[in-house]
Design goal:
By secondary structure, the protein is mainly β. It has two domains: 174 residues, Ferric Hydroxamate Uptake Protein, Chain A, domain 1 (Beta Complex), CATH 2.170.130; 568 residues, Maltoporin, Chain A. It contains three helices and 42 strands. Strand 24 and strand 25 form a beta hairpin. The protein is globular.
């Protein structure tokens, strides 16, 4: 502790300019300043300094630049390798912890559109974001060779010149303007899982430049094989033994993906970018389940098997055009189209006494989600220190979904449409949901002084959601969504930020239609709700970031408070006491508050400058009134907090590095209340290890060992006779699941 404090108190702070450039020799310029303040942020890890150097308030340090030669000692292969070495940006030993540049995932689950403000984007390449959602900027970093990177810019301020707005900070990757030749990167991998199975994978990417065209073409095939072993022990309401369930669930998914990212400079003032993605993600799953009946003597065992073939593919294509005028004005047009197709069946078989199998369940679910987005914006300077962006986004999203249920029923007529079983009536089983949303927006940036900047955003959302099929409904929604983001830089190293924002959560189309209930073997389907309203909130946040002198690291702390309206949770829709049911619905208002603390620090003061330690702590709480019991409780499945600790230790002389990751969450607060049961979740920590070696040819060998700890995830479910409010306990289930250790060997390099 004392050597560390002594080093910091006598360190030289980097000079204050519009940006600081950091090379392999550290900050480009430095000068001595007196000790001004003590930072409480240093308390987040016990060996951080309790005081630090500050600069005059008139000095600003809004951008930190890491030049390419800063990374030479580590001999990185990809741009992602470089980002992982920057304090506060990359998770030690793992992928970068910054978010992708645009919301991804299935649009029907709430990730529709881009948002007029551009979302919480954080990664740009040459100042531009990728015109894609699944094919995002963050995914490109592992495919861009390090030799093509000129520098990384960590932009902490707000500006109308940025291609994204409202982020805590932006990582801008600047590539070399001219690439002398094409670059081919490759990776081969083999993974071993807890059931002793092996799966191979690999990827190839070609990047380069031809005249005004730069390109990145990639193909990859990666296993996402997963084996989870679970055991469930249950007792009856009088605490007598009920049963013991042992289950093995094996998912054999391989992701095959082709992607292309093209950019063309039409002229000195205009450019065009195109992006495309096609992926096949079939995920067949097999389940083996053995249930021991503990209520009888001798115990009896029931053997079940489930076959769940799953077929999935998705594609996406996007493009954007940008025109910069001589007077500083800018026009941008962006368009994206994507489609996600899913088709799965779930068939359950029971082993008979004569060793034959009898099918007793068929569930068939298919869905097609399509999305088309177009967004245009115009940016201009109002005065020397002010600019404004005006724009409009239109997004159209559709979901076509169907669910078929078959069961053993001696009174019905079997049908091949449900696997030879008897069709069952499912409410709202066939539906088509469509949303057409318009979002005009205005974003105003104002540099009030060299140390103070203000970004004000005003968005108006107008949408129409219609549903046809088994249920017909049409509703209109409109919201005004303002945001204010104020940033103050009292010194070159310290930034304070406060924001107030109205956030409107998008509705999940999956909540509108009947779906398969994969969490409860006793409940095959979950009903949909056609009358959902958006959950929204006023969110207040205050953030402080301090960059330690001489690139020692970054400290960050955030406090937040949110007032939620129309919270979405389980809601009673029972028609009778004999037919209890619930759906996701709006249950009322709630509140949320918490804090996030993080630190990413080099161990230079103890003579280990190549040891980067990263840690973070999230503590939070929430409150809403439960509609079943009338009590105050947390939001459903709400984590009380999370702790992570990771390190990366580079050994340049040996051309090697190694590290570990530790993940844990604060248990005791994850509940899910329903009409006839209550669930409680907790989990054990997870520990990962990695080691890398690079030979003289530039080939890297990496060993990953995941889930070195038990890492089990457990759930307690209390079932009740009748409604939960009657408090007549029927059964208590305790289920724990583990995925076991996973080993991976990867070999990659660049030609």
């Amino acid at each position: 502790m004392l050597p560390f404090l002594s080093h910091v108190l006598n360190s030289q702070a980097p000079s204050s300019k519009s940006s600081t450039r950091i090379s392999q020799f550290g900050p480009s310029e430095a000068h001595k300043t007196p000790l001004m303040t003590a930072l409480g942020l240093a308390l987040c890890i016990n060996f951080l300094p309790s005081s630090a150097l500050a600069q005059d308030a008139g000095e600003e340090q809004s951008t930190v630049i890491y030049a390419a030669d800063y990374f030479d000692q580590w001999q990185p292969i990809t741009a992602q390798d470089m980002l992982d070495r920057i304090p506060g940006q990359g998770a030690a030993g793992g992928p970068s912890n910054v978010s992708s540049n645009l919301p991804g995932g299935n649009p029907s689950s709430g990730g529709r559109g881009l948002g007029g403000g551009g979302g919480e984007s954080q990664i740009l390449i040459n100042g531009k974001r990728v015109a894609g959602k699944n094919n995002s900027t963050s995914g490109q970093l592992s495919r861009i060779p390090a030799s093509q990177v000129r520098e990384f810019q960590i932009i902490r301020g707000t500006s109308g010149e940025l291609d994204v707005r409202g982020s805590g900070q932006v990582v801008n990757v600047i590539l070399l303007e001219e690439v002398s030749s094409n670059s081919l990167s490759y990776e081969a991998s083999v993974n071993r899982y807890q059931d002793q199975n092996f799966r191979a994978g690999g990827s190839l990417s070609l990047s380069g430049q031809y005249g005004g065209l730069d390109y990145l073409l990639a193909a990859r095939s990666q296993p996402r094989y997963n084996v989870s072993i679970g055991d469930e022990y249950s007792v009856l309401g009088d605490y007598s033994l009920n049963d013991l369930v042992l289950e093995t669930r094996t998912r054999d998914q391989i992701v095959n993906e082709l992607s292309a990212n093209l950019g063309y400079e039409l002229s000195a003032n205009s450019s065009l970018r195109l992006n495309a993605l096609y992926a096949i993600k079939d995920d067949p799953t097999d389940v083996e389940r053995y249930t021991t009946n503990l209520r009888v003597t001798p115990n009896t065992v029931t053997s079940e098997r489930e076959a769940i073939p799953g077929e999935r593919d998705n594609w996406e294509i996007g493009g954007d055009y940008e025109l910069n005028l001589d007077n500083g004005q800018r026009f941008k047009l962006l368009a994206i189209a994507n489609q996600d197709n899913r088709d799965s069946r779930r068939e359950r078989f029971v082993l008979q006494d004569d060793n034959s199998e009898q099918k007793n369940l068929f569930l068939g679910l298919s869905s097609v989600t399509e999305e088309q987005i177009i967004r245009g914006s115009y940016t201009t300077n109002l005065f020397d220190a002010q600019n404004i962006e005006l724009g409009l986004e239109r997004a159209q999203t559709t979901l076509d979904s169907s669910l078929a249920l078959g069961a053993l029923d001696p009174t019905g007529t079997p049908s091949s449409a449900v696997g030879g079983l008897v069709p069952q009536v499912v409410s709202n089983a066939r539906s088509s949901v469509q949303e057409i949303r318009y979002e005009p927006f205005a974003i105003h940036n104002w540099t009030l002084s060299p140390t103070l900047s203000l970004e004000t955003t005003l968005l108006y959302e107008s949408s129409e959601i219609s549903q046809t099929g088994d249920v017909s409904n049409k509703r209109d929604f409109s919201f005004v969504k303002p945001k204010v983001d104020l940033r103050y830089n009292p010194s070159a190293n310290l930034q304070l930020r406060g924001s107030i924002e109205k956030i409107v959560n998008q509705l999940s189309f999956a909540d509108f239609v009947a779906v398969n209930d994969e969490q409860d073997n006793d409940a095959n389907t979950m009903a949909g709700n056609t009358n959902l309203r958006q959950q929204w909130q006023w969110r207040y946040a205050f953030n402080g970031e301090y960059r330690l002198p001489n690139d020692l690291g970054v400290l960050n702390a955030e406090l937040f408070y949110a007032q939620h309206e129309d919270v979405i949770d389980r809601l009673d829709t029972s028609t009778s006491e004999d037919n209890l049911s619930s759906v996701n619905g709006n249950i009322g208002d709630g509140v949320e508050l918490g804090m996030n603390i993080s630190a990413s620090v080099r161990a230079t003061p103890i003579g280990m400058p190549n040891l980067l330690i990263t840690t973070s702590m999230n503590l939070q709480d929430s409150e809403v009134t439960d509609p079943f019991l009338g009590i105050k409780r947390r939001f459903q499945n709400y984590q009380r907090g999370r702790f992570t600790l990771s390190f990366r230790h580079d050994l340049p002389a040996l051309r090697a590095n190694w590290g570990m990751q530790y993940f844990d969450r604060v248990d005791g607060g994850m509940f899910r209340y329903d009409v006839d049961d209550i669930e409680f979740n907790l989990g054990e920590p997870r520990i990962n290890f990695f080691a890398e070696y690079r030979d003289r040819r530039g080939i890297t060998y990496r060993l990953d060992a995941g889930a070195l700890s038990n890492g089990s995830q457990c759930r307690q479910r209390r079932r009740f006779l009748g409604r939960t409010s009657a408090n007549i306990l029927e059964e208590i289930e305790l289920r724990c699941t583990t995925t076991g250790r996973e080993l991976s060997l990867k070999i990659n390099g660049t030609f």
